[in-house]
Specification:
- By secondary structure, this protein is of the alpha/beta class.
- It is built from nine helices and nine strands.
- Strands 7-1-8-9 form a four-stranded antiparallel sheet, with helices on one face. A three-stranded parallel sheet has the order 4-3-5, with helices on both faces. A two-stranded antiparallel ribbon has the order 2-6.
- It holds the Pfam family Ribosomal_L1.
- Belongs to the universal ribosomal protein uL1 family.
């Protein structure tokens, strides 16, 4: 096993690796240890009590973070006519139809989100092998196949985070930047976890939120007390 460097050893000082911290304390600890030269992303990992191999335990959805992710999201929209004009007016970075499909086939993908109107899905469907592995394929469940392109663009640019459980039932997401105020990170994290709770698969049994950890891009992980992650509204639901 590789030996940890001096920076990470220093960052681990003062952390109890067996303790599960309340969210507010964990955010403070992670922010204090995000001390490299760039603005690190704050990353949340959730271990869920699901088995995605079963269709009724698949988890996929989107969460709107109240304070955004701190990243600039570039949006491509597949639309024609009036809907294409609506997308341009709403701030889409790339708008097109067959011409956009051709660009993507040629490897020109300077965007992080793809939205399509329903009538464009026959064109978009042919791009599944290109967009799918990158997590860019429009999906009605994620609100990215819609006639309300203006709202979809606004949500994407405001900090909407898409999530999907991996084969082990773990969800990872960037929930802000180390430069964010601690209270904004707390609100973002609770909004994300609330979305996970609302999207609980029908086949999930037993404990749903099993374990969680918070870290910065280059920092050590801090274990979280999962009971501190959800908002009061979600707990009452």
């Amino acid at each position: 096993m590789a030996k940890a460097g001096k920076r990470i050893v220093s960052a681990r000082e003062g952390l109890d690796r067996d303790k599960h911290y309340d969210l507010e304390e964990a955010v403070k600890l992670v922010k204090e240890r995000a001390n490299v030269k760039f603005d690190e992303t704050i990353e949340l990992s959730l271990g869920l009590g699901i088995d995605p191999r079963h269709a009724d335990q698949n988890l996929r959805g989107a969460a709107n973070l109240p304070h955004g992710t701190g990243k600039t999201i570039r949006v491509a929209v597949f639309a024609r006519g009036a809907k294409a004009e609506e997308a341009e007016q709403a701030g889409a970075d790339v708008v097109g139809a067959d011409d956009l499909a051709e660009q993507i086939q040629n490897g020109q993908m300077n965007f992080e989100r793809v939205i399509a109107t329903p009538d464009m899905m026959p064109v978009v469907g042919k791009l599944g092998r290109v967009l799918g592995p990158r997590g860019l394929m429009p999906n009605p469940k994620l609100g990215t196949v819609t006639n309300d392109v203006a709202s979809a663009i606004a949500e994407a640019k405001a900090g909407q985070v898409q999530f999907r459980a991996d084969k082990n039932g773990v969800v990872h997401a960037g929930v802000g930047k180390a430069s964010f105020d601690a209270d904004k990170l707390v609100e973002n994290i609770r909004a994300f976890v609330d979305a996970i709770v609302r999207a609980k698969p029908s086949g999930a049994k037993g404990t749903y939120l099993k374990k969680s950890a918070l870290s910065s891009t280059m920092g050590p992980g801090v274990r979280l007390d999962v009971s501190s992650l959800t908002s009061s509204a979600a707990k009452a639901a």
